[in-house]
Write a structure and sequence with these properties.
With 380 residues, this protein is α+β, with helices and mostly antiparallel strands. The protein is built from 11 helices and 17 strands.
């Protein structure tokens, strides 16, 4: 380890692995260390199932009905990939797709007050058949979707009098006469905003997000989302392999005791008696707790179930978004469900994860609207 490197990367989360992969490809000498004995950092997929119990300090063993522990890969943080998004483009561009296999997520749903879950309408045909809104609202929403699809920056005839550089999203909703409910699921389930701040911001970004959703949906049909077989932990490992092929050095289970500074500049990393020198350090926030400030907190609940999520047409995987207004909150609640079809659970088992931004002193109660949609839960 006592060598000189161009870059030392601490932590094997997705961002860190992408950066070490790209820097190795561009000819940099990279040392990549992690204090854990597995890849992925905070966004790892834990296997076997016994290890997830240990991770959360659960003492009871797994039930016999759950099958073999090694058939499970449980993500610590949920994430679906937009089929037409930048991360998928990056995976294809770097060739990391040769180490990964993806499967499309079967359904994309949105929650409406009253406990009902509806499929997210993303094209003109679905806009007219959805039960989310009344007949006249459907027609207005259809016109809005056609505008988003046909909008071309260089062709003023497609702008319908809207200047995307100056109009706010609220003004766009008003122009098409869309009501609060429609604005709710458009902004939260199509554009994937987490709160309503976007309504007062310039509309260009939101229109691009809605376009990305429908372009991604058009690519594979059932939903706009993709998910890697064997869990999200495969993503950082794919980039780690890329880095290793181009000469990157990896050390797992290697604590970093100190980031060495001289005259206010970083010059290396010390682990025990050894010091590796470098020109630059890239790390996740947990390695420099004195240099970061906590600005929020997320509550997550991992639920193991032996049935699909109710009201999702028995989907083997899906996402349900609960917009903030529908349950009287400031931030949305997300439900992400995957199953044995993605090789992350034993045959017949499902993993659902409910998550939201913490707003009160009782995070578990904040997750309740999402947990209530899941039906019977075997373990959480």
């Amino acid at each position: 380890m006592d060598e000189e490197y161009d870059v030392i990367v601490l932590g094997t989360g997705l961002k860190e692995c992408i950066l070490s992969g790209l820097m190795s490809v561009s000819g940099k000498k990279v040392l990549h260390m992690d204090r854990n004995k597995y890849y992925g950092g905070e966004s790892a997929s834990i296997t076997p199932l016994e290890d997830i119990y240990t991770h959360f300090n659960r003492t009871e063993g797994i039930k016999e009905t759950m099958g073999r522990g090694r058939d499970w890969n449980v993500d610590l943080i949920p994430k679906f990939l937009m089929a037409n998004g930048k991360l998928v483009s990056l995976l294809i561009h770097t060739g990391v797709t040769r180490y990964l296999e993806f499967k499309s997520v079967e359904g994309s749903y949105v929650y409406k007050q009253g406990g009902h879950v509806h499929k997210v309408p993303a094209n003109e045909k679905e806009a007219l058949s959805t039960s989310l809104m009344g007949m006249f609202e459907k027609r207005r929403f259809r016109k809005f979707l056609i505008f988003v699809q046909e909008y071309d920056e260089n062709n003023p005839s497609t702008h319908q009098g809207i200047n995307v550089k100056t109009w706010t999203m609220k003004q766009v909703y008003e122009k098409f006469g869309l009501d609060q409910n429609t604005a709710d699921f458009t902004g939260h389930a199509l554009a994937l905003h987490r709160d309503d701040e976007y309504q007062n911001q310039i509309c260009e970004d939101t229109l691009k997000r809605i376009r990305l959703y429908s372009d991604s949906l058009a690519r594979y049909g059932k939903s706009p989302y993709l998910y890697p077989l064997y869990g999200l932990g495969e993503l950082p490992q794919g980039f780690a392999r890329l880095s290793a092929i181009y000469g990157g050095t990896y050390m797992l289970d290697k604590p970093s005791d100190e980031i060495v500074m001289e005259n206010g500049k970083v010059v290396g990393v010390r682990s025990g008696e050894e010091t590796a020198r470098c020109k630059m350090v890239v790390c996740d926030p947990s390695y420099v707790t004195d240099k970061v400030k906590k600005v929020g907190q997320v509550a997550r609940c991992i639920c193991l179930m032996n049935h699909p999520v109710p009201n999702t047409k028995d989907s083997l995987s899906c996402q349900i978004i609960i917009p903030q207004h529908q349950v009287g909150r400031h931030a949305d609640i997300y439900v992400a469900a995957v199953s044995y079809s993605h090789q992350v659970a034993s045959k017949g088992w499902f993993i659902a994860m409910v998550s939201t931004t913490v707003e009160t002193s009782n995070p578990e109660a904040e997750l309740k609207p999402g947990l209530d949609l899941l039906g019977p839960i075997e373990e959480k």
